[in-house]
User: Fold these one by one.
Assistant:
Number 1:
Amino acid sequence: MPVVATLGSQRLHLTGAVLPDGERRELWLADGLVRTEPVRDAVDLEGGYILPGLVDAHCHVGLEAHGPVSDEIAEQHALADRAAGALLLRSPGSPTDTRWMDDRADLPKLIRAGHHIARPKRYIRNYADEVEPEDLIAAVEAQVPGSDGWIKLVGDWIDRGVGDLAPLWPAEVVKPAIDRAHELGLRVTAHVFGEQAAAELVEAGIDGIEHGTGITGSTIALMAERQVALVPTMIQLENFETFAAQGEAKFPTYAAHMRALYASRLERFRDAYDAGVPIYAGTDAGGYQPHGRIGDEVIMLAELFGADYALGAACWQARSWLGRPDALSEGAEADLVVFDEDPRSDLRILARPRHVILRGSLVETAGGQSDRQ
């Protein structure tokens, strides 16, 4: 089990190139904080490239294919992300109460959106708070206690009567719900695959789009104008063929639509990037993806946007978007990941962190050492 009591008590000394600017600096860590002046009795750590802790901006801690899981399994999710250097996790929807993790100094920080909000029989069983459209505002309000500033809607899913993807919420219903969330100081994001729901949700004032394979020209332009965030979850989109095949016998229109969305996804994401839509890295771990794959997601984003942008989308840019301060300035909480080589030169290096430092203490290091006994 993690030795929680020792966290923050270490004194560490790092020397290396600090990304993104690449400036060579010395940092000392004491009492869980970054110090820029020498600290007595600090232990020197090897490693040449120092980054703020990575961010997985879309992962579901406490969720697997069948629904909610035990605290022990949820802990395993968080530890897998930690081992990959992902120390800030945005969890946009989970039926498992993970608030107990806030008292665990050895686990990554979570930014939660409460439960998914969906309509009955219009999403994956056991995942969501299921309500009818007339109750959507009340459902938003009900998720506030379990939220860290976000609400998650299911924007579209297969409609068996239509035989294809269709929006869950009428446009005249979803806008007042988003407005209510904003009144409460919350941002709203949504699971969206298809074109219609993406267009309606962006028009209604949503703050984020998850997956976003259906964003098109006018929707992309409005997202750029309003700086609506896109988290494309590239790893998860590789399952579209499986989704299509599973539904093809009963819903051939849906299957064809899913394949078309997959085929056009790269072009649409490049258009969003070119327009200035902010794009962030999220694996969609939980449900049908294992945790700890942020490096794989960055590699896939880099194929579209280049290594610098992709790494920032999982690090400094994502931290800024989520309102978390720079982890490398004087007095900042010391959540860092250290690599032997510059990951921008070969993003595969992200799979091999030399050190992972959480709240100023070494929790993972090359060779298998960690705070776990």
Number 2:
Amino acid sequence: MNKSSWLVGTLAAGLVGLWTAAASAQQLPKVTVAMSGWTGFAPVTLAKETGIFRKNGIEVEIKKMPTSNRHQAMAAGEVQAITTTVDTHILYASSGVDVTQVLVLDSSHGGDGIAVREGINGVADLKGKQVAVQFGGVPQFWLAYVMKKNGLSINDVQATNLQPSDAANAFVAGQFDAAVTYEPYLSKVREAKGKIIVTSDQTPGVIIDTLAFQPDYIKKNPKVVQAFVDSWFEALEMIKADQQKAFEIMGKDVNQTPEQFAASAKFVRWYDKDGNRDYFAKTLPGFMKEVQDVMLEAKLIRKAPPNLEAMMDPSFVK
């Protein structure tokens, strides 16, 4: 790290400390966000642990929970924000929980993968095999997408519902013919010299994570939403200023060393403000329609969301 980067990081840390101390004297609006330990979400943890959220006027609580539980928690008022993939947001909306995406967080570039036993040499060989995959989340959608692109259906495998971490652990322990998982859990498969036949690097642009709130919440709390979005961008700047320290903080949350986290982060792209503007304008509308069609065909959803256009609001990244 050069001297200017060190100075930026030191100044940022000092300012965050002052802002955090000042904010503690007043009651801040609280946002509870539902997410997982996926590497792509780690800057949210960084913004919380370094006081960026408080500096921007909000208190953020992170609740780690399975994908299938997040929309239920939102409908019950237990969480106000959800970080997950575009396909999962469509699943939520199709089940009656309206969500509006306000920020593109990350995309997977090799961070998701399908691990297989020896003798399975391609997607076609998965037919009839036992596969560990999380239902109601991106692993199931991505498996359906990959199989469709190879002329098969997700119904051609014997699927067992396991969380990504459990799927990786079970596979390394010798269970199942194949497992669908993501970083940092996919690294366990890599470290065990597991065979991976497909990664998200071969399906670019398909696994995209976004931040969403319910429409009514956005209308009533636009400043809170803006503060969350701004904090994400500031966290990315902090990573640039002092990557080693940032990786230490983010890795600790998922029991990784800075070096292990750095290895996981190689397979993820975080979206800054320019990336967000570009994605909202050029890609997201058409991509949501493609995702919806894949999910309907694979019967991952029974009906289409009532209004895809209402599921995105780019005003907070302009």
Number 3:
Amino acid sequence: MQTPSESGNERKVAELIAREMRKLGYDDVYIDAINNVIGRIKGNGTGPSLLLAGHIDHAEAGTMIKPFSGELMDGSIFGIVGEVIYGRGAVDMKGAMACMVYAAAAVKKAGIKLKGDVIVAGNSLEEVSAAEGVLYMLENDKIAADMAICGEATNLNVYLGHRGNAEVKVTVKGRMCHASNPGRGINAAIKASEFIKFYLENYDLPKHELLGDCTTTVLDIRAVTERKAPVVPDLCYVYFDRRFLPGETREKIIAEYREIIKQAQKVIADFDADVEITKWGLALYTPVEEMVVQALLKARSKIMGDEGKISAWIFGTDGAFIADKGIPTVGFGPGDEAFAHTPEEHIPVKHLELATKVYAQAILDICG
């Protein structure tokens, strides 16, 4: 937490992690061209390999007080019993990265000979692009494993996945005219506001028992005019966030927006718009029957006394891109995702201790 690492500026924290991995006796450690950091503890090649993965960048500090203090403090102000570590990136997700690094090292220090490799990977650029850092790591660093655990915060429960997220751009068209005589034009900004109201009242979204209901919200509205002169804007861009379920495609979502535009044209005079998807974050769903899920449930039970709650993240993770490469991926991490990106970001110390033990047990059960 004391080493800032906003997206695109991860080099210092990558070097810190690499130094620690080498000090802990990892067999292979390197940092790639875009500051992904990868450490490997080698098995003898006769068993399955496990990837422990997470990102090393964090959101901007915003209004957070002393965001890089890494202060150890009483958690009662956050409703937590016991001590917490406060700081930007604590729960999202440097706490989990530390647990992963030390869990794998503890197995090696104990002298246990593994059958399969353990790979601990911290990727860059998650907060700004979701996919760029992890895809570079998987494709250019040729990271492969039989299964993976994504360490994003799960409150020490086992998560099977999350909804995907599409950023949808709707371009509302108007007609420019002099602002002194607005009736001669079509104000794209006003038409956009009318469409937003219609859209939010009429867009029926899918639901999922585990992953949750799909949601949508407005991210940004931009009227296209430099306003050097008093003119009515002839274009307005509206950006929507649309959370989607596994199996929903770009084509399906585009078709839905085109249909809602068509319906809006029946009730909004002079309304015309185009639609495109500008960002796409994959959905993730790993069936509970998968070996990695079962192994993680058993590891948690051995350390914590029960299997906990099987659930799903509200936000998206880069674990979805790992799974998309054919590596079954499940979630488990310390801390509460509700505090990610907030001024109150923290992680309970007790969670760090338990997560490290569960990761180590999972390594033993899967690779040992």
